[in-house]
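Dear colleague,

As promised, here are the two records you asked about, laid out in our usual form so they can be pasted straight into your sheet.

NAME FIELD: protein one
SEQUENCE, THEN STRUCTURE:
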Amino acid sequence: LGVLEEYPEVGLIYTAAFGLKDTNQVSLRNIPDPNDRSRVLRQLVASHLDPEQGTIFPSTVLLRRECVEQVGGYDEVLDHCADVDLWVRIARLFPIEALDAATVLCRDSRWNLPGEARERFRSACQPWLQKIYEQIPLEELVSGSPAEAPPLSDMLEAYGERAGWMVQGNLLAQAWRDLQKAEDCLSQVDAETAAKATPLSPLVNVLQLIPPSSAEDSPLLQTMLAQKVRAKAASLWACGSGLVSIVMATHNQAPYLRQAVDSVLQQTYPHLELVVVDDSTDETPDILAEYTDPRLRVIRFEKRLGISEAFNVGFNATHGQYVGRLCSDDLLAPTMVEVLVRTLQENPACGLAHADYQEFGESDRTVSTEGVTFESIYFHGRHIGPCWLLRTEILRQLPRPLFDDLLRGVEDAAFYLDLFRVARFLHVPQVLYYYRRHEQQLTQQILDTTGFGPLLLRMQQRYDEKYRLPWQSVFPAARLDADVRVLFVYFVALHGGIEATLRNRIAALRKHQVEVEICIIEDQGGASLYRGLCRAHIIGSRDDRMVLSQLVKLLREEEYDIVTLIDTPMAYQALREAACQAAVIVEFHAPRWVDRMKPATPKNTDLLIAVSQFVANRCQQENIAPGVPLAIIPNAVPLEDFQPNPAVLKQVQEQLELSPNQRLIAWVGRLDPPKNYRLFLRLARRLADVRDDVLFWMAGGGEYPQGVENLKQMVSELGLESHLRWFPLIEHEDMPAFYHAVAASQGVLVITSVVEGFCLVALEAMAAGVPVVSSNAPALAEALAAGPVPPVYAFHDGYP
């Protein structure tokens, strides 16, 4: 753990181990040295093939989570070698490290397996070795020259003797030499020759030049060589257009298969590959074997994968700049790929292009996919249909697995929900796909068996769990077609970050046609933020009996779908007495609110919201409402409100008589101890002693009489009267002008807080282009990491 923390670029670390043999003999096992980057893949592969060369025991491995997620996690298709397969994929992208110290005692008996288990081991290793050879270039395995190949070849030969698999001792070295010859052949095919030829002729000619020496004896090697040549040839005759990968998953669809494959290979856009994942038990393998087009690649499995896992395997094996999918009983229109590629090329901001489709067979209708939104997919199961093309860089941003086998029947809709988070969709109003309706259709069989409603609910729950957004408990699907009314209940409204946060949220909800009201127990000036924005109920008292009676009256007279409580523990009793049926949310914006709300928060609350991981941790430590979902939803600012307005900025500069050479150093917040404003004043004094071009601005805190007295006294004691300007109150709509004045002076915002739940002013300042200098108080790092562009500087020695 120490190594991973010290070196954040390292993705994997492993250690030595004591090997306990069946004879109870204990020995220290060597480990592969990770320092030689050119040989690290050879070591990982070899360590699994021959323990005498150095073994990595899975129990000694520590992996960095984000690295595991980036490479796609464990390959569920592999019954064996899934661990070393994951290590190899991580080692290709990230440095790995090793500690030459034994940390575990491992039973070392895999080469002494009894007969039946030994046979299972032999057969189980074959898919992994095939995957290694297919997906990792031989250059990486043999490290640069034929002279270095024999050691790994010897290991393969030794493995062949142990596992009984047909591995020739010189296969790898010969394959490396063949690849070198193939590269020489490819170098003779220049772009000019390729441009004059038909799209496939350069590829076919080069394939004919490949030496057949070892390829004839190894179909697997022949496949590797074809992939190598295809990638090179595609770059020559693509003529500026990207390679397109179409993935097809097929299971016992032989009657329709030829039509589906031909519809891809006969596209008007020829620069493509078709990856077919086949786990059929009918004549499908024989049909696929009839094709000689090198653009067709078949991945064959003897066991049944299921539609989701088959597509996962296929997408992981693609090489194209764009990817799409095709079911083996459907057809592509001849111009489908050409039209969608052109759409993506003409619209670089678009991540996915989709078109309409035509049903045929047992149904005959045209389906338009225009107007599909995230909401229509999530709440109603509508989706963009089967006709789409996606940029590969977008695909790489999605969580794995791409298609969830637990969502059979709606796995494609769940896939589109993930895409909506990272990509912009563009609709093409043309029919470019033909969707066959027939009795043997797998999706329809699942829907007939399970029903669409339960599948939709399962998809929503999986999505919510994945992104930690348990909205289903707050927005029941049955009520989504009706108007939603939300009531926020807040204790004391001041001019501060919480009030600004609520204003931003209410404005955003109104844009989505949500009817919002706010109930304020006591107004100390903050209610003005909601004037003209929403209906506000002001109780105007801190007397518990008065507050309770007014809340009960409001909840009985009005019908709300959701009631959100913020620092108002007495509201629970009002909800009970009013027999309110609304969903209840409790928001925690500061650690002190956790202590205040803990005794009152019942277990029948529908949702807890924390504005930061720091506040969420506090909720969990205090065991707030066990079993109630807890969502972390950070505060946000509307960026459009903080765009510079030159006219307003000039007016502010003139009114405040700002010198063009003055640098403004600003501080915003309440005048109370947690904000630590005294530290800012001491910093101002020290900086004013060495700089004559700085002016210090403080904004806020006018509603705290004691804080105001302390501020005036300290300013006088430090002699800052001519260096500091204090604004007791700045209206919310005027805060952007305040920040823009600071930004125009090349100044900074200083945050000195001892503790924060989130700190909205940091985001506001950065949205206006103001750099931030901050203490290292909890939760501030989270807020600052989410900021737009300007830099953030932290006090290295913490806060006094």
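NAME FIELD: protein two
SEQUENCE, THEN STRUCTURE:
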Amino acid sequence: MAFPTNFSDGPKTFWNLLDLVSHEIIPEDAVTAIQNSMYANVEELNVYCNGESTFSIRLKFSHEKEDYMISAGDVIDNRDYRWFNGEKLETELFKGYLTFPISTKREINLKNIKCIFKHIVGLFEIQKIELTSDVDFMDVFTFETMKKLSKVILSNHELLPFYAKYMLEDSNINSLKLENIMVKTNGTPTFYTVKPDRVVLKNAPWFSCDSLHKLRCISFELDLDKTSGNIPDLFHLIHFVCSWGEGGLRSLDQMKLVLPVEFFRDNSNYADYIITRMEEDDSIGFVNVKTTDNRKKCTFQGENNRMNKGKLTFGDKTFKDRTFKFRVTEYMP
């Protein structure tokens, strides 16, 4: 591939700009050309790593309808070479899609997509990043690029405690889903103050149920169905429900809690216990209980001007998916 010697000559396409750097040292003229181009700011960068062969990066620009895609695949006809973060890769550019050769070894595909990611974030100003990965990708993030994360879906790998804490407590992430993610602890589940707007945790034995009392999110789902040794006891759950009903969790609008069958075997009358506890609570204005479709429903009104109306639906002994659903429907003006 022939690289331009005068970077300021004529308009540049995105692919032209991507090709301006052919080695680890970035020429100043190349940086200037990128910064002055209409592609200087990437509105959204999507990274997707899943399975043995799906590795891709999608770039969205506010001034264009079509996205730009870089992905692993078969390089057939228009073979060329491009440099990414000091690595030379065989590529094929066809109809706006850039493909690099897919390898039978997953670690090679991962290495290539990480090189391309570092190359892009080193050249362009990224507004936000969405990451979906079933393999550890966080080691390529700097502190600055981590601040760009807005949506994260991770599964089936180990996450360092620092990253778990950052994502749950200190990040700018709006939507976070961690499924079958393992986080090392000191032997006991870790307490977190959960802050992203929408959070889903599935099979998270490292997450302390004490954290429920400090939720700062709008929507929260905790699925412990396949988790053992980290099950909230009935008193703990009653305390959480009443705390929410009394306005203790101001931002929480919706929650789903899935508990393992062991909880229901040990607490077969859990719905009755929770409803009775709420009826005895002076801070809750009234409680109406009725049974519909094998579910007990409880309607309450807070007295502290933080919550006007709420609904709780509890599964009883015949509620097969063993799921609690809580939803706050209105607030006092």
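A couple of things worth noting about protein two: The first strand starts at residue 41 and ends at 42. DSSP finds eight helices and 20 strands in the chain.

Best,
R.
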